[in-house]
Design goal:
The chain has 541 residues and is of the alpha+beta class. The chain contains 24 helices and twelve strands. The structure holds protoporphyrin IX containing FE. This is Cytochrome P450.
């Protein structure tokens, strides 16, 4: 009884302290109320639900840009003011110029999904982890992965032909799970030296089975209460959150069960790799082996601890697997609706293969892949149009003034070119809206048109992003460490797919929407159950 009373007392005290802190911080804050923005929505979730769980990703972003501008005042949960922006200079300032001055406020969500790895770490801890991980993502390291990407994609092509076509000329196939199996095998071997054998055996492995439909189960159809609860987690002590997460509640349980399996598999891989290393057989070129070796040569003070290694693996598994599969799925979706680009890429592959043969090479090199301008333009345009992480959130670690490249009209009609903010200001950066800005990409920014990357007319004033000035991989100290890995893998996959199949839309009136399932996921409009899928008609060539 005493302990229950103590818990109630402690809970009320913590709640009151949190409320007092919230009120004080809001009273002190520089106001952003002068900025235009949508009506505030409910006190509980404000405009957050429109961004986190819309019917279709982009519903809110595209409407807000048209109605109010590129830098707005929106409402976060519990009436909190939030700065929403798609402005190039603002994004560049926050990601590139400001180092670690803009922190990630949603770390509990990241921890639930990925563990305390690189995506989760902050400040000096992040810088240390990133420094150790960088060599594993160097160009030299990645070049060695190309044959593996190619072989994995080839295995999938052969399996598709054997199992699905069985003599038929064409078939309607949901290509999304196939691309996911390819990237699962690829991340297994390249990142961990581990064979999931997913293309051959499907989702039989423990990890693949635990991951199946995770994102849809955990992130589709979220209620306002679920969105609000996640925000409460950010404001209460971490030990309490961990206690709550152990409760067998649907979404939490799904995430916790998955992460438990991912940790077990990661530990198993580390044990096997360590045993190999102890036997003097540590020549493996996978990311984790490179990381372990890099770690061994570090000053003991800056090394990754044993507890830090496992979360890097659970992070790489998730960050490096479905991200690439989904982007490749979107590329095939767009190509199925643009047959002229399929043909141009096939011609390009043929010419590049002929040139490689002439010089005596049997396979294409990384330089060959990069010389294929049409393929690259299709990939860039797909990454622009379908940033699978459409929104990133940050919190200012100090008072600051955020510069804007697109001047904004305030509610009183004043034109401003910067926004003063206070420490603690919540900020939402719409990568999706930036990627569709006519000011950056031209008047037809809302259309999928790869020519824009071939015409040589794009000259954005503000340089942003690690690849083609896109916001898709984020940028700066927290930019995607795996962007080159992803680009190379997608090049290899798309080449194999396009050489072997022609893609066209499925029969009937199937409309694909930008589905909200954690990542931007293709879904069929009007489907009874929201699930990621991309049916396409495939003709064997
Ligand atoms: C098309 C594919 C991909 C996209 C669109 C993508 C996108 C992103 C984005 C937007 C971030 C920033 C996240 C944040 O700030 O919270 C990020 C970070 C990260 N990505 Fe990727 N990613 C892709 C592929 C990959 C691959 C293939 C790997 C690894 C093999 C990877 C590993 C990571 C890691 C470890 C981070 C954290 C970096 C840090 O905080 O230092 N990603 N990615």
């Amino acid at each position: 009884m005493l302990s229950i009373n103590f818990q109630v007392l402690a809970g009320s005290l913590l709640g009151s302290l949190w409320l007092i802190r919230l009120v004080i911080s809001r009273v002190r804050r520089r106001s952003i109320n002068h900025l235009a923005g949508p009506p505030p929505g409910s006190w509980l979730v404000g405009n957050t639900a429109a961004l986190i769980s819309p019917k279709e990703i982009g519903d809110a972003d595209f409407f807000w840009i048209k109605e109010y501008g590129t830098t707005l005042h929106v409402k976060h949960t519990f009436g909190e003011d939030s700065l929403w922006t798609a402005d190039p200079k603002a994004i560049q300032y926050i990601f590139n110029t400001s180092g670690y001055n803009y922190l990630k406020p949603n770390r509990i969500g990241v921890e639930m999904l990925l563990g305390r790895g690189l995506v989760w770490a902050e400040g000096s801890q992040h810088a240390r982890q990133r420094k150790i991980m960088n060599p594993a993502f160097s160009f030299t390291a990645l070049r060695g992965f190309l044959p593996l990407f190619r072989q994995t994609a080839q295995r999938a092509v052969n399996k598709l032909k054997d199992d699905k076509f069985a003599g038929a000329e064409n078939k309607v196939i949901n290509i999304m799970p196939w691309l996911s199996l390819i990237t699962l095998d690829a991340i297994g071997e390249t990142a961990f030296g581990y064979q999931f054998d997913a293309v051959q055996k499907g989702n039989e492995s423990k990890l693949a089975a635990a991951y199946e439909n995770l994102m849809t189960d955990a992130f589709s159809n979220r209620s306002d209460i679920s969105v609000a609860i996640e925000q409460i987690f950010e404001r209460i002590p971490v030990w309490l959150v961990h206690l709550i997460l152990r409760l067998p509640i649907g979404r939490f349980k799904r995430l916790c069960d998955y992460l438990r399996v991912a940790r077990e598999v990661a530990q198993d891989i580390v044990d096997k790799q360590t045993a190999l290393y102890m036997d003097g057989k540590e020549g493996s070129k996978d990311v984790m082996s490179i990381l372990v070796r890099a770690n061994l040569s570090q000053d003991p003070k800056s090394k990754l601890s044993a507890e830090e290694i496992i979360p890097q693996m659970t992070t790489l598994f998730l960050a490096g697997h479905d991200t690439t599969a989904l982007t490749s799925t979107w590329a095939i979706h767009q190509l199925s609706r643009h047959p002229e680009f399929q043909q141009r890429i096939r011609d390009e592959i043929k010419a590049t293969r002929a040139a490689a043969r002439d010089r005596g090479d049997t396979e294409l090199t990384v330089a060959d892949l990069d010389s294929m301008k049409c393929l690259l333009a299709v990939m860039k345009e797909t990454l622009r149009f379908h940033p699978i992480v459409p929104l990133l959130v940050r919190e200012a670690a100090r008072d600051d003034i955020i510069p804007l490249s697109i001047p904004q009209k305030t509610k009183t009609g004043e034109i401003i070119t910067s926004v003063p903010i206070s420490k603690g200001q919540h900020i939402e950066l719409s990568l999706l809206a930036y990627n569709r800005l006519p000011e950056v990409w031209g008047p037809d920014a809302d259309q999928w048109r790869p020519e824009r990357f071939l015409e040589g007319t794009l000259a954005p004033e503000t340089s942003l992003g690690v690849f083609a000035n896109l916001a898709t991989f984020s940028s700066g100290v927290r930019g995607c460490i795996g962007w080159r890995f992803a680009v190379l893998e997608m090049q290899a996959i798309l080449i194999e797919m396009l050489e072997n199949f022609e893609f066209s839309p499925p029969p009937g009136d199937v409309e694909i929407i930008l589905g909200p399932a954690g990542f931007m996921t293709p879904m069929i409009k009007g489907a009874k159950e929201p699930k990621g899928e991309l049916p396409v008609t495939m003709t064997a060539l």
